[in-house]
C-alpha cells in the first residue's frame, strides 16, 4: 500500500544518468549474483508478437527489443540495488501482447542465497493490488450489478454517513475523492490472528469525512477495502474466491494470491522481505487487515499477464477479464486534479510522459516496493518490485528512474512548448505560493493528527521567481527547483514533473505536484495553524529547561552551600510547578514519540499496541491538565509576590507553554481513551 510518510511525502524523481557515478560508491552486495532471466512464456494464451518488432519508435530512439531492454536493465539494476542496499528485485517488460523481458536481480532469500526467479518468486506489490480490486468492480459494473454513481450505502450492510448532504459513490472511491481522513490502525501486522474478517474490520471504525465527496483527492486504503467488500456482497462470493475465479484463472496467474496466509503451494516461493540487504535479517510476512487494498502476492511473470490484459482492453489470448468498452472507460475516465496536471482515472493514476498516454499504480508495504506502468497507445507495460526498504528512499528513486528512463529511451517525444511568463509575473506568483501547507491525505480526528504538526510542507519563493518545496527532494538530497512555465504552473528544472496551484481571489488556496497530483493536494494553512510547530518547539523548550533546572539548581546549592530561600506557599508553588512541567513534558513527548513510531513502523499500528496507546492517552488525560493547573496557579501566585521580574516572566512563559500543550492534547484528541488511529 502506498506508505504514509505523513503522511506523506516520499521524495521522488533523472537518476538514470547518475547511476554509474553513484555505483562507484555503492555498497557491494553480500555475494554477487547474475541476473536471472526466465524464458519468455510461449503458452497459447499469450498472443504471438514478433520479438524484435518496434512499437512505432520515434526517429533516432533505440528500438525496444528483448536484447536492448535486457542490456539496458542489466546496466542499471545491479548497481541501483547495491547502491540502495536492496536485496532483490524483479522487472518485467511486456510489448504487443507478450512478455518481452522478465528478469530477476539479487536474492529472494539472502540466507539461502536463493536468486530471484521472475517466474517462481512471489513479491508483495502493495497498493498495486488495488488494480485487481478496481478490475473486479468494473467487471460487476459491466454486468449491471454495480453502478459507479449510486450511493455506496446501497451495497453495504452498514452506513457511511453523508458529508454536506452528499453520499459517497464508487466513482468517488475509485478516484480517491471520498473525502475520508487517513486511517492507519491495524494496517499491517506480522500476526495472522490479528487479521479480522473484512466486513468486521470496516465496521470497527469508519474514518471521518473531512471533505465533501468529489472535491478533494485524498488517497484512502479504507475506501478501497470498501470496494472489495462491495465486490463480495454484489457477487455473493468471498473477495479471495472472486479474484481467483474471475481474474487469476482466466489470466493463468497460477502463482498469485490475495489470501492470508498464503496457500502452502505458494509459500515456498515467497521472497523474504528486508529492511536493508546489508543487515541480512529477513522480516516476518506482512498481513494486511484491509486485504483488497494491498494483500496481493504475485510473481513478476503473473503481473506481466495482468498488464497484457489491460493493454489489450481486457483480452488475454482467448480469455477476457473486461469487455473492451469497460476497459477503455476505466483507462480514460479522468478525475481532474489541479490545472493541467495528470489526473486520477478509474483506479489508475495518469502518468503520461513525452506525449505518450500512460497510466500506472505504485505500491509499498514496509519491506516491498513496486510500480506498474502501462503505455496504452504503445502496447507496452513495465513492472518492477523490490524486496527491501533500502537506504535513504532508494526504492522510490529506482522506481522513478526506471519508469522515466524507460520512457525517455524507448518512447521519447517533444514536450509542448511552454508559454512562459514574464519575470514580474514569476516573482508575483512565487510570492503568492510562499507559505505553509498540509497534505489532504491526513488523519484529522484522531491523536495521529499530531503528525500534521511534524510534517508541514513549506513552499519558498526564491529570488529568481522559482519555487522550492520542502516535500520535493532531488536525488542529491537537496530540494528541487520549480520554474514557472505557464500562469500558476511550474516545472521541475531536472525533469518533466509539474506543479500547479488553485487561485481564489488572488490567493493560492492549494497546490499539488506530480507524481502526487492524482491522489493528494496540499492545502494552505492559516497563520495560526502554521505557527503550531514553532509554538510546540518553544513550549517544549520552556518546560524542558524548567525540568532540567530543578536538579541542577539543587546540585548548585549543595555544592556552594547555599540554602533554599523560598518557604511556605512560595516553596510549595515552586515545587509543584516543576512537577507540572515534568508531567506536561512526559505526556507530550510520549504522544509525539508514539505517533512518530507508528508512522515509521506500521507494525506498531497493530492491536498489540492498544495497551500502550491507551496508557499514553490516559496518562496525558491526567498529566496535561494537572501540569497546566499547577503552572497557572504558580504564575498567579508569583505575579502577586515580591519575586524578581525575571521569575515573574518565566512563570508566565511556563504557564503559557503548559496551556498550549494542554490545548494540543484537546485539539488532536490525544486526551481520552481508545486506540483507533
Label the structural class: alpha+beta
Our measurement of the CA-to-CA distance between the termini, rounded to an integer number of angstroms, reads 17 Å
Poorly predicted regions are 3-32, 42-56
Helix content: 25-40%
Gyration radius, rounded: 27 Å
Q: How many strands?
A: 25
The pLDDT mean sits at 87
Largest sheet at a glance? 8 strands, antiparallel
The total count of helices amounts to 18
Overall morphology: globular
User: How much of the sequence is in beta strands?
Assistant: 15-25%
Describe the structure in your own words:
The longest helix is centred in the last third of the chain and has 33 residues, at 568-600. With 677 residues, this protein is an alpha+beta fold. The strands form six sheets. Strands 1, 2, 3, 4, 14, 15, 16 and 17 form an eight-stranded antiparallel beta sheet that branches. The protein is globular, with a radius of gyration of 27 Å. The chain contains 18 helices and 25 strands. Mean pLDDT is 87; it is low at 3-32 and 42-56.
Key phrases:
eight-stranded antiparallel barrel, 677 residues, eight-stranded antiparallel beta sheet, 17% strand, alpha+beta, disordered N terminus, 25 strands
Provide the fold topology.
Blueprint: H1 19-23, E1 36-37, H2 66-84, E2 88-95, E3 98-109, E4 114-115, E5 122-123, H3 130-142, H4 170-174, E6 188-189, H5 198-204, H6 221-235, H7 239-251, E7 256-257, H8 264-267, E8 273-274, E9 282-283, E10 287-288, E11 297-299, H9 300-311, E12 315-316, E13 319-320, H10 324-332, E14 349-350, E15 358-364, E16 369-375, E17 380-386, H11 394-410, H12 423-433, E18 435-439, H13 451-454, E19 457-461, E20 467-473, E21 479-486, E22 489-492, E23 498-504, E24 507-513, E25 522-524, H14 527-530, H15 532-560, H16 568-600, H17 610-639, H18 645-666
Helix pairs in contact: 2-11, 3-6, 3-7, 15-16, 15-18, 16-17, 16-18, 17-18
